[in-house]
Every structure is written in C-alpha cells, then in structure tokens.
Amino acid sequence: MSETTSTTATTAQARGSFRTPTGGRVDRTSPVTFTFAGVEHTGYRGDTLASALLADGVHQIGTSIKLGRPRGVGAAWAEDPSSLVQVEEPFPDPMLLASTVEVFDGLVADGVPGQGRLADIADSARYDSRHLHVDLLVVGAGPAGLQAALTAARSGARVALLDEQSEAGGSLLGSDELLDGRPALEWVADAVAELAAAPEVVHLQRTTVFGVYDDGFALAVERRTDHLGGAAPEGTSRQRVWRVRARRTVVAAGAHERPVVFTDNDRPGTMLAGSARTYLHRYGVLAGSRAVVFTTNDSAYRAAVDLADAGVHVAAVVDTRDVAPAHWAVELERRGVPLRTAQAVVGTRGVERVSAALVAPYDRAGLAAGARSSAGVEPEAIECDLLLVSGGWNPAVHLHSQARGKLAFDAGLGAFLPAERLEDLLVAGSAAGTFDLSSCLRQGGASAATALSELGLDVTAVPVPSAAEQPPSSSSSAPDLVWVVPDPSGDSSRQFVDVQRDATVADVQRALGAGLRSPEHVKRYTTIGTAHDQGKTSGVVTSGIIAELLGAAPDAVGTTTFRPPYTPVAFATLAGRDRGQLFDPVRTTSVHDWHVQAGAVWEDVGQWKRPRYYPLAGEDMETAVLRECAAARTGVGILDGSTLGKIDVQGPDAGVLLDRLYTNLMSSLAVGKVRYGVMCGADGMVIDDGTVLRVAEDRFLVMTTTGGAAKILEWMEEWHQTEWPELRVHLASVTEQWAAFPVVGPRSRDVIGAVFGAGGSEDGVDVSNEAFGFMTWQDTTLDGVPVRLARISFSGELAWEVHVDSRYALAVWERLIAAGAPYAITPYGTETMHVLRAEKGYPIIGQDTDGTVTPQDLGMAWVVSKKKPDFVGKRSFARAENQREDRKHLVGLLPVDRETLLPEGSQIIEHREDGVLPSVSETGPVPMLGHVTSSYRSAYLERPFALALVKGGRARVGELLHVPVKGRLVAVEVTSPVLVDPEGARRDG
Amino acid sequence: MQMIKCPWCGPREEVEYHYGGQAHVAYPAEPAALSDEEWAHYLFFRDNTRGLFAERWVHTAGCRRWFNAVRDTVTYRFHATYRPDEPRPVTA
Amino acid sequence: MTTVDAFSTDPADAVPHTPAAAAAGRLNGTPPRTPGADLPEHPDALWKNPEPKKAYDVVIVGGGGHGLATAHYLVKNHGITNVAVLEKGWLAGGNMARNTTLIRSNYLWDESAAIYEHSLKLWEGLEEDLGYPILFSQRGVLNLAHTLQDVRDSVRRVEANVLNGVDAEWIEPDEVRKICPIVNTSSDIRYPVLGATYQPRAGIAKHDYVGWGFARRIDEAGVDIIQNCEVTGFVRDGNRVTGVRTTRGDIACGTVALAAAGSTSVLTDMLGLRVPIQSHPLQALVSELLEPVHPTIVMSNAVHVYVSQAHKGELVMGAGVDAYNGYGQRGAFHIIERQMAAAVELFPVFARAHLLRTWGGIVDTTPDASPIVGRTPYDNVFLNCGWGTGGFKATPGLGWVFADTIANDEPHPYAAPFSLDRFVTGRLVDEHGAAAVAH
Fold it and tell me: What is the residue range of the signal peptide feature (chain A) (predicted)?
C-alpha cells in the first residue's frame, strides 16, 4: 500500500467525521474493528469496507496498474471499477471490491496495485452446492423483484428469490422513497416477512445469480459466512453454489449508473452520483464534504438534493443540457445550490483525491470534431472533495444477454436494452429500462403474472403499493447522451474509459486509427473491459465512443459479448465438495480391508484401488515382486481379481450378439466351457479382451478388463440397441456383484481341493485334470454360499478363478488363505500379475496396445474367425494399411546383457554397428521401429525381459536391435513374446 | 446445461447423458461388399451440420437406453427426442 | 529463447514505454511495480479495410491465425502477393481469439512431431519476422502422469521426442516440485503425481498480437484483408473453383485455400466435399490478475487441467471439450465446474482465485485427432482443417507448409501424412492416446 493512503487515513480531523448522526441501515450498536492499509478503523455491522472507509474520510483504495495513479471508491456495489482490495485476514483473498466486502471484526485488507495475491497455503474452508427446482426464479430483490416474488408466492408457485446484497430492497436501500405513505423499506420488510412465511419460497440474500444457461438453468453463489469473519460457525460452508432449474425466470437485476468520461476522471473522490446517495441512505455516510455534481440527466439531482439536505456543501450541479428540469431547478434553488446548465466538467485537480472540478461550457461538437470551442477558454475550477457523475443508466442486461437475448440501443436512454422476450426469461424493472418506482413495481408483478399464466398456474395479483408522486414529466428534461467531454486542449490521454486498465480515450482513438473497427478488436487493443469488473461501466461507453468517432450508430457498433460469470466466483466455490478423495469416486473390492491389513501398496486402475504388491518388512518392489512371482510359479499365489469387468448376457440371441462383437465364434461354446475372446472397434483395432463363460444355453458371463468394464458394456448396448434391436438379449453389469480370485500355481490344486474338494465342501468338486479341464467351469457351494470355479489361467500356471458373491467374498478369501497356508500361499498384486502374463506373452489391452493394434498385430490371428461372414472390425482388416508387412507386431525383447531392465515406453531403433546413438541435431530424426510396452525382471528366466511393438517384428525374431536408455544403446534380441512354457505344459500342473 | 427429454424417462439433466454422434447411419448390410472408400465413409465420415441435426444420445446414468434427437447445433436447443425405431420427426 | 531488441518476451522485464504513460506521468513518484502490467503497445497502423477486388491469384477463406500465416508465407517464401484473406467476422476473432495459447511440439508420432517442431522453430523467430511483440515466452510445459500407464505413455512420448529432435525429458515428482512448486505432489490426493514430461522450449504467446502481427505484415505486402465477408458459395467449373461468392460480392480466384476452423464443414458442404470433421464446443476461462505464482505450463490428462499464468498475471485454463457437436461458441457450465475441481485438486493455492470470464470456441475434431492438410478433389482448392485443439501452436508451421503446398501445387513433406485419403487407406496418425491432454 502506498504511504499516501496511510497519511490520509491517519489525518485526525479527517477520520470519523463523515458518518451522519443518525440513519442508514448499519447497526450503530455493533461497532467492528478492521484494518485497512495497516491502519485500524472502526465501522459498524452492515458497513461495507468502502462505506466504513468513506466514513473515516478514506477515499483512496489503491493505485492503478499501469500508471500508478490513485484509485478510490467509484460506486457502491459490484459495478465499482476501482476499489479493488486484497483481503489478508482471516484468509488471503485476491481482488475483492471494497464496495462489496462487508466489514467484521478482525478484517485486514489492503489496496490492490493491479494484481491480487493468492495464499501460499491451502484453503481449509468448505464449499458445497445445492439444487433447486422452481416455477419462478426471481433475480434481484429490489422493488420489481420483490413484487414479482410476492405475486408468485401468493399464487402458490414454487419461487426462488435470489439477491446479491446483504439485505433485500435493491435501489430502495439507497433512497428515501415512500410506498403507501410510509418508508419503502417497511414495505420491503413486510414483503420479506411474507416470503419467509410462504412454504414454497426460497429467499436468499448475499446470493448472486452469475450465469443463466439453457432450459431455465441458472447458477448462483451464496456467500454464507464471509461477512461473519472469525464468528463464522464451524462446519458451515463458506460459499454455496445453487444450481437452479427454473421454468421461468424474471430478471430484476437493476441498472448500473453510467459515468461520463472527462480528463482526469479517475481521481479518488470521483463517484457515480447514485452511489453517493446509497452511501448516505444505506450506510449513513457522507461521501464528501464539498461536492460537485456533474450530470447529463435528471437522476443525479436526487443525489444533489439528498446530499445537500444531509449537510454536504453542494458547490454546483453541472448539467450538460441547455435546460435543467424545472422541478429540480426549484429544489436546488431552495437549497441554494448553484446550477450550471450547458456546462461540463472538463477536468479535475487533486493528488490522492479530487480537490477541484474544472468546469467549462459544454462543447457539443463532440469528440471527432477538430478545433474545440472551449479551446483557450480557461475552465473554472470549483473546489470540491467529491465529484459525482451521472451519464445515465445502463440496465443490467447481462443475464438476458447470457441467455442469448438480443439487445438494441435505445437512443433516449443511451443504453442497450433487451430487444426481445425470451421464452423462459423475462426482464423487469430498471433492468428493462424502466426507471420510475411505480412502473418498476407494476412491471415486476406483471412479469411474474405473465410467467405463471404461461405455466398454466392461477395468478393471484398483488396490489402495487403507491409510490410518491414523480415530478411531472413536463418538468423533466430528456437526458443528454454524452460519452466523453472533449478535453479543451484535445489531449485525451488522461480521459479514462476503463480506470482499472488505465485505458483512455486516446487508446480508443489509436485503435481506430490503426484500422480497427470491431469493438472486440478495440477491446483487445486497449484492454478495456478485460479487468475485474469486465467492463460493467466501461463497456457501453466504449461502444459509444467508437460510434461517435466513426460517425456510426451505437447499434451498428454493438457491444462485446456478455459472458458468465456476472461477477467473479472463486475456483474453490465451483469445485465444491469434488476435491481430494471426493474428486473421483474410489472403488474398492470387498477384500480391500484385508489388503490394507496385509500392507498392500496401491495402484490406481481407473477408479479402483488395487494392490500392486505386498512388501514384507525390508522389501522393495523388485524384491517383493520376484518373491510373489516365484510363489506363483513354484507354489501357489492368490490375486484379488474382483475388479475385472463382468457382464451378464442373457437371452435366446445372446450367442448371436457375442458372435457379432467378438472376433471369434462364441455361440459354439458349450455350456460349462470358457473361451478367450477379443473385441475390436469397427476400425479393426483391439479395444478389449477377456474370457467368456457359457453359463447356460441362453446365458454368458463376459469378462472384460478392469478399465474396459463400463466402456464394453456401453459398447455392447450401443450395438444391440441401435443396430440389432431385434436380438432378444439383455445385458447387465455384475462387476460389483461377483468377486473373483485367481488361485495360481502348481499347488493351486491342493488349495482349491482343500476348500472346495470332497473334503472341504458339502458338494465337493473333483479338481483333477480329468474331471475339471482347462477352460471349463463348475458351480459348487461353500457353507451354502454359491461359488463358481473356472480353470482360467492368465499366468500359464495351473490355476482356478474362484467367483463368489461379493458379500461373502472376504470369508471365502480368508478360507483360501487359510487352506493355502501349508503351501505358503502368497497374495500377489497387479505387478506380479503383469509379470506372469508377460512371461507368457499375454498382452494387456491398453498397455501393450494403444488403439492402433489389430489382433493380427498381437499375433492372435487364431482368435479371428475365418468362418463368420462378419463381425465388428472385420471389414477394416482388409484395408490397405492392414496388409502392410511392416505393421508393428507384439514381440519379446531380451536385453543381451541380461541385466538392463528396459524402461517401459523406451523406443526401439535398428541395431547400430558402432553401438552409438546418432546425433539428432547432425543427422536428423532417428527412425524408430517401435517401443517397449512391458518390461520386467523375471524370476523364472532369471533375467529382465520385455514385450514390445516392433515394425515387422515377427520377421525380426532372432535379430538384434537397439534401445536407447539414458543416451546409451542397449542391445536386445527380438524373440517370440512367449518366453515361459511355450508348449503350455504348466497349465495342467 | 441442457434439460434433455429421454423418451423413456422424461426430462433429465444433461450430465446423465452421453452423446453418440449422427443418427440414422446404419451399419452396412454387407461390409465385405463395400470398397475401401465406402467403408471409410461409414467408419469416419459423419455429417457436421450447422443447424438442425439428427443425432444419437444415450441415457447413461438413467435407463441406459439409446435414443435419437433433433437438436440445433448453433443454439444447442433440442427440438425433438425420439426412439431409435421412430423416423426423424418433422421439426421447425 | 529468441528475443529481439525492441521487445522483451519476459513479462517481468516489461517496462512501460507507452505514450500514454509518459503523458500522464505518475502522481505519487514511483508506484509499486506490477510485473506484466504493461504489455507492449500495439502499433499505430495495423491494416487497411479495403473493398474486395474482382479477382485474386489466391483467395484464403478464413482470417484466423492459419489464414493469415498462410498469406504471410505466400508473400515471404513464394512472392505471391495478389492474395485476399476473407473473414466472415472480425479478424482473428474465432479460435485465434479464444484459445489458451499453449505452444509445444512434444507430440508422439513422427508426422506430428515434424510439423509441430517446425512450427515451434518458427515461433522462436517469429517476433523478429513479424516485427511485433508477440510475447512468446518459453516457460516450459509439464505433462503430468498420474497412473502407471500415464508413466509408460509419457516415457514413450519423451523417448520418441528425443529421437525426433524435440526437447523433452521425463522428470520425477521432486523435479516437478522444483519446476512448479505449487503443484500438489503429495501422495494424499486422489491421483498422485507420479512424474511428468517436460518440454522446456514450450511456451505461450499473446494470441491477439500474433494474429495482428501477421495481419500487419501481409497488409503491408499488399494482401487484402477483407472482414465481414462471409463466403456463401463457390463458382465451379468442372474440377476447378473459379470464384467465391461472398456477402461482399463475387470474387474470382486462381486458387482457393480453406482455413476456416469452426466453419470448415459449412464450406466443404458448399463444395459437395465430405470431410471427416466434427465441430465441438471447447471452453476456456481466466482468473483475475494475480501476482506471479505459476512459472510454467501444467497439463494433466487424468486430472483434466491445462493452466498457465499469462503475461498480465491471469490464470488461463482450458476446459474439456463438450461432447456434442456445436457451433455456438459456448459450452455447458458443468464442464467448467469440473475444471475448477481439477484445478484446485492439483493446485490447492488456486482455491481463492476467481473465475472472471468463461468463453467457448469451436474445435474441429478428426477421427485420429490429427489435422487434414492438402489437396481436395478440386484441382485448385486446398484444405486445412481439423486441428482440434492444436491449431494455435501450429500457426506459423502450418502457414509455412500450407503456403508451400499451395505455391507448388504439391503437398509439403510435412503436410503429406495429413492427407484426406488416409482415412481410406487407414494410415492414420492417431494422437488420441498419445497427445496427453488435448490442447
């Protein structure tokens, strides 16, 4: 923070002197102490940081990003382009607006010199979200919104009334209007009370609807504890996202006052006129002691009159128009406020705060004109510490525009207005360009009534309270449309269009001079509208300036696109609960806790947690895996394979469907048998593999890879439903229902026999090779629990898969473990599973394939039926590219040194006689033949080995190739992918 | 986020659905009879209409059933949803 | 990193030298410096807004980065200047204005690496070539691996990159932490970081500056940039297109080059040409300006994140592609919410950063996630499309290669693998599984 602010803040006479003795919505019985720019201040509950600082006479908030010029409070809410603060305590929050931050005890904040600062620690606050379905969403609890909500509530509709401020009332909070002869805020209080009592109404304050999307979907963020500081209740989410689905929406979001651009219009103390009125009425704060009001329309007169009545010396009202509104002229005269018509503020003086407004006759020639009528005329300096500006009002059309409603320029208002009624979104009140209170109320009620009757609901009309008499229209004057007051000397380089970006009229002129015409180009050239406020006040002004300079209509120039969010929303708020372990669901098997007890190291496989290996004390992965592998090859091991996808395929045409989807024939599989199969995409590339059990004539159990489970079920459904709906077949995932435990190794027969054999189970199974052949399955029970045993081997060893209802899985697993104890049964994880299968040359789809590999590439021509006339993928095998001899084939690689473990992913090149990797920079890219897909140390082979995809690999068996490993070339011999037991002798034990 | 009307379940949030590309592209009756070029067109070439587009959706997190929709690819608005065995409805 | 004297590419070195700054002066002596606050000023002259001529040797349809770069290299490398660039909206206002500006070349396949690396080399000299401060900042990219298969794929890509002459390395989590300390490399997140690939020469650039730099150069060279000029049809004569019908009148042409991402299919439909493209919404977002916190670019596939901190200090993120076809330049918000969850998961310090603005572009995707560049069945119509999320980084490389293809009436060797007929032969360049997170 700059020292100047501190100086200002600590000037004793300036502090505390701007609070009115009474009035305002702040709770004067609840003082709060906060720190801004290192100085302690006191405000009241109900204050914003801006109102409390203004009450202490502090106007400068920070400095501007490029030029380092002082920046102050420009408005009283989110349209404020300049009061950026960094909150430091209770938790660092970058870039909030002083005009929207509510004060609380212990708040510590600083001005932002352009960039906010993130905390260097994680945010421990909670965030959550809720869904809301309503008939009518009302955005904004000002007069129009309240009347709309009341109408809908009395009609019995489901209503959401969401408003971004701390309390309902909207513009009424910043005024002294009467409704039905009493203060308008009493009407507001009654309305709020009625809504609170209505059963179908959700009314939330501090809740900003920041985006409107398709089909009545709106998103809002509720700031639930920010205003409480340290008093925030434990366990309450800090912010909540509301996902609202509304059948109709009434946007009653109000309007933003529009500034007029003039030279040095950025000095603190320069403020939108209506905002000063809000500071007075809502916060009991005088934004200055000596004010100049500069306006092009009638609305600012109210501010002048109210401030004068509150004791501010209003040094002048400067109106660009030749004729002031008669009613207001009288009011000013009554208060002795000088009125200057046909004049304009052409500049200011001051350092960290405005000290004078420079006033001169208004030069109507406009920005594009050359010689200035005011040139050479010395402007008159009117001393002031507050310069209020009003260039008219811009309806808050953001949500209408986000919903892709058209906008049209209204020359009378000098603003863009909704130009069409959208089907499910209506705009009411000043957001629709209606500015008198009675009309706003009427329109709010009428919009709700229209919406509800369109929904077929009976409407109970709500009487519109009567607002005070407006000044007769004959006494008002049409607003002037002034974007920029030309600088008398023609220097537009300090005429700030976007004060946050330090972007000026000169920048716009330069952009147009460079050949740019589109406001999108001008925005990018000047950076106008790209800052924190996203051009809430600068956007329309820019379009106006472009139009004026090009001699075009603002309509023809248009605006840049309004995009969500309406106001900034914290990342964490949108992330909600979906973080950490809730970022993505964790899937665990029914034996998970056993694995935890056994000290498993985990691997994430899709959403599943799978044991990767089970280290004993002192073991690293390599040692553990070598031990686990040895157990499976020489004794017995057990794997939790429950994550394998399982699809129950039932129906008379089940076999037909499978025949069309697998490359091989499945319908010929006999009941009781098991067959391995491969599925391809229509492009002929392998997408999944697994075993298929024929359970009955009309029933198959399809096993998929762990990662492919959901995808393959969807794939089968897609073909069935969209291409072959005539097939009588039903598909269901039973992945979660069935646990699956491969029991693997020469001693597996002993274990399976002990548990399920004649001695172990009531309907004991004969586990001899003769009675229980390879690739067959049998059902049995264990203590009454159905169990299915299948002789399937993914390791080449004698093995059974034990399938059991997940609810009993842990008990069965423990029985197997107990029965295996005499044989030192060894639980093994995915790593050992991978080694065992790789030794046998069995590919893992997704590891040894990458979506560009056919079954033939894998050496599995045998799994591709020659008999079937068609199956998914078959036609693609005939394409030119699939006929090439140099396609990549799955092969084995043996490092010649018998030591090097090739990193998986390593690239493979031709063998180089010199054993040296050529320099890419000298000789260009080195041709690659393929890559290592799997690589392990083999306990069985007593050497490392790998699987690889190699161009023309099958023809290269026996050849030497090179694999670069950390800049060194490792010689490898190409082999068959099957390195263990190529005869298949071990599978029968 | 869209509200999409599943022909079986009624209107549900967009997040319950998966997209399935152009509708009414039948698997060729006899793929083997197609030229490479014809097969490539079946495999890879789909309309990419700007405007009303008949396309496939599946209610993944609901009934898991596929259906067709006519949607405007500019406004994203759904003009109709219908079952796969129904013809494309006439939409404005 | 290549820099030129006139401009610094390091935002930290950006010194205000704006006329406005000089004129305005500073009111309080030296204010706190805001790194990156002062982007280099744009020049006083960018381009003219000419009326279209009756005829051009080459008509480029699409005034985005690719169309402008193609015109630039037609002029620079081939001396072809009787060229019009037709833009239906505002110049460089499509994906050029909507992308997240990542530039990298660490693609898996040889064909991809060749053209993207060619492009990256051009990026390294582009500021000088264009005489425009494009703010090319080579801050490196980390592609995080979260699963063992990510690790395998990453190593595979790195090893291929190295043999293709692309700078790349595999780094372990502790090195990830050194390069980007704010990445959550602890083991207690849902998908812990197991390592990353690192391409130090990757970077970002200021997209508008790039588009305008090309535009200014070609405007100077006599190329007509014609905005608000939508192509409504083509005049055909047998296998040739002799003219282009536009909202600003008919324009005769010697050669037509299509470079209209987001509208490709609309144009090819007019030509009766089938192209395997699907157009999808792709969203992006920015935060407010923040003090420097993120020194590099981080991408993650499993935890879908792509984030960098741009020159002024804003966090720029690309979200996932919306699944459905869409030309609306907007997407669904649940994609953004998911993106935010991923961002905070990987970067806990981002929690209180604010989403300031979201927007959408249209990405033209192909079946193999690689572009289509080259000939069409028409003798004098050339096609460039289907870049998916890779278009921006390819801008100069494609411009060079496409201009060469047009000028020589023969696909440039780097373009040849990306011909339309690969979908018939099956010789795809499948970057799906390989390109890490798409961007």
Answer: none
